[in-house]
Amino acid sequence: MFNLENFDIKLNTDVIGRNFVYTDEIESTNSFLLNKVNKFNTDGTVLLAEKQNNGHGRNNKVWYSTRGYNLTFSILLTNKKYLSKRFNILNFAASLAVANAIENLYQLRTELKWPNDVLVNGKKIAGILMESISNGIKVERLVIGIGINVNQILFQGNYNIPPTSLKLELNNIIDRERLLAEYLNNFEETLNKFEASPNDILKDWKSKCELIGEKISISEGESIRYGIFDDIDEEGFLLLKNNGKIEKIYLGDVNI
Ligand code: BTN
Fold first, then answer.
1. Which uninterrupted H or E stretch holds 29?
2. How high is the mean pLDDT in each 10-residue block of the chain (256 residues)?
3. Assigned CATH topology for domain 4-206
4. CB 3.0 to 4.6 Å from 6: which of 109, 177, 182, 235, for a disulfide?
5. pTM for the whole thing?
6. 81: CA distance to ligand 1 center in Å?
7. How many angstroms separate the CA atoms of 184 and 186, rounded?
8. Does 127 contact ligand 1 (Cβ within 6 A)?
């Protein structure tokens, strides 16, 4: 069981996680917070579930997580300051904060993979899925869902990148309450840079992305593109260089 008191003592934020909702079982924390009907509107609301019956990742892939072992949660952002043209950068803020929390607490070296994966020793330890609801071109609700593999040691399913967990990497049971608080503290700190200096978030993210400058392939459904991973632009899209031309990539799985 997640110990709310132990978590609360370690949470140092002003906004993120101050409205904290804990549930045993749900379809998906992302889908629940995205749905206006569910009446959660407070900016920074965090919903943590022990078990999701329809937890999902990018491209509608299933996000598997055994009840009680990991952290599967979503953060609702409703403050207008986040719902700007560059809101994609929030995706980067979310994965950067996972990497920083893991490095701070466990001194494990992390790597970030475009657009939203956190790796340790080349294996995936966490994934982020940002989803939004728009009215015309105006984004109204933004939910950032985070799945961190914490104490699980066996994984089912097919994976593009082999999964790992903190328990597997450290051979120790991990305190989920401490990790979640550290994550949210870190995320709020990163988020506070969003308005004034979003480029700093991008710069820090890129410093942990080892594939920039490498020859890569990007697959999306049936299509595969090849080229050099040139850079990430200011809205967070991947710039792929091929035959002297730069192509902007919006979606896809990057492989070396
Ligand atoms: C990915 O790697 O493709 C992203 C995975 C995101 C999974 C998290 S778990 C909590 C939240 N609720 C969901 O349904 N998905 C995200």
1. helix 29-34
2. 96 98 98 93 97 94 94 96 88 98 98 96 97 88 97 90 97 98 98 94 96 94 93 95 93 88
3. BirA Bifunctional Protein; domain 2 (3.30.930)
4. 177
5. 0.96
6. 24
7. 5
8. yes
